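Sanity check. The docking grid for S-adenosylmethionine depends on where the pocket ends up, so I'm generating a full predicted complex first rather than guessing from homology. Inputs follow.
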Amino acid sequence: MSRLLREDAPNSLRYISLWCTEPWTWEAWPRLDEAVRSGRNVFPELFGKEFFDYLHSDAGDSAKVFDKAMTTSSRQSAVDFAEYLDLTGIDSVADIGGGQGHVLASLLEKHPALHGTLLDLPKVVAGADPRLRDGGAFSARARLVPGDCRVEIPVRADLYIIKNILEWDDDSTRRTLANVVKAAGSGARVVVVENLVDNSPSMRFTTAMDLMLMLNVGGAKHSEESMAGLMAEAGLTVTAVRPVNPYLHAFEAIVSG
Ligand SMILES: C[S@@+](CC[C@H](N)C(=O)[O-])C[C@H]1O[C@@H](n2cnc3c(N)ncnc32)[C@H](O)[C@@H]1O
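Predicted complex below; grid placement will be based on this.
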């Protein structure tokens, strides 16, 4: 099993393991009882700022571990998701909170006429997949937008992807979904992808991550009902909920007219 901690192991868990044991986690876990009682994250009280602000301005090493953990976990799911997604009639996609852009790069590779936009926090976009950056294989069809999806999503696209990001507090989810609806035209497609705390063989891993997210971003992984409920509240018509792979589900929706 220790081979999984090697960087070069196929399906390496090295950076996921490091991420779950970063210095800040040791200060946050002892406050779990408080977080469970209040339903709120304990991070701002401990560190004086929100989690992602802290990560990017005060904990550069931890931010690097986070990006690598996300890269490892998103690489395989990006391929699965690109296989899953039917892009018939779609000319442009926007990946909101798309990390370094592995999903977007997989889609641009598979669909040679597709255009795509990656929106994520400035420091994350700055380290985007080289294939999406100037001089990269897909640069002519890719746009990189640094920003905060809770504030504004200045991107018009036929299809919006929101994958593994709506697992923070409900207020951030509401603001993000409202911004997507505002940016999109009526009839645009929105696909939300999440690990659910039910119906999943990876339930114990998802539950552990759910508790960690509660500590740092006040997050909560969703059940099918809670996710579909927030999407409907934002003005989205959910048309289907389908498995992408053994641990991810896609919520397919249309922006109501
Ligand atoms: C768990 S990762 C998922 C990344 C990618 N969607 C995937 O599935 O591989 C969450 C992403 O949300 C981004 N993020 C967090 N807060 C954000 C915000 N306010 N606006 C835009 N992106 C944000 C993080 O930088 C990170 O890339």
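Relevant for the grid: The longest strand covers residues 236-245.
Also worth noting: The mean pLDDT is 92.
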